[in-house]
Design brief:
alpha+beta, 39% strand
Length: 137
């Protein structure tokens, strides 16, 4: 197993899972970006990670994560609903996803509206389970 903390390994799995859907992937919502982007995703996890009872399949910890999809609004300020829907569907279709240390399942898509910075946001929430025997994967 890696010397990195487990949460870093889970984030690495998430970046691998959702990379390539939008123009950029961030861990958390950036305040600014160095380039002008039409779309990007932000990945975060809940603070709570729960231990599962012994004998519960091949997983040891569970929590929830979410991917916020940001798509630049049209010049008139309205939502680019076609691109927003297409990219949100691509995120949803990535699940279930099995990474090196975690499995992401059960996507739930929520339209959130404007972030007041020129982007519209869709959130995809998903279940995260860590694999007990990571050395064999």
């Amino acid at each position: 197993m890696s010397d990195k903390p487990l949460i870093n390994l889970i984030y690495a799995d998430a970046v691998q899972a959702f990379n390539g859907i939008a123009e950029a992937v961030y861990l958390g919502r950036p305040k600014t970006t160095t380039t002008s982007l039409n779309s990007f995703v932000s990945i975060e996890f809940k603070n709570e990670i729960y231990d599962l009872a012994a004998g519960n399949s091949d997983f040891s910890l569970t929590t929830y994560g979410y991917v916020d999809l940001y798509v630049k609004a049209k010049p008139d300020g309205t939502m680019n609903i076609n691109l927003q829907t297409k990219l949100a569907d691509e995120i949803r279709k990535k699940l279930p996803y099995k990474g090196k240390v975690s499995v992401f399942t059960r996507p739930v898509v929520s339209m959130m509206g404007s972030d007041n910075y020129g982007f519209n946001v869709t959130r995809v929430t998903f279940n995260v389970r860590t694999i007990i025997n990571i050395n064999n994967n």
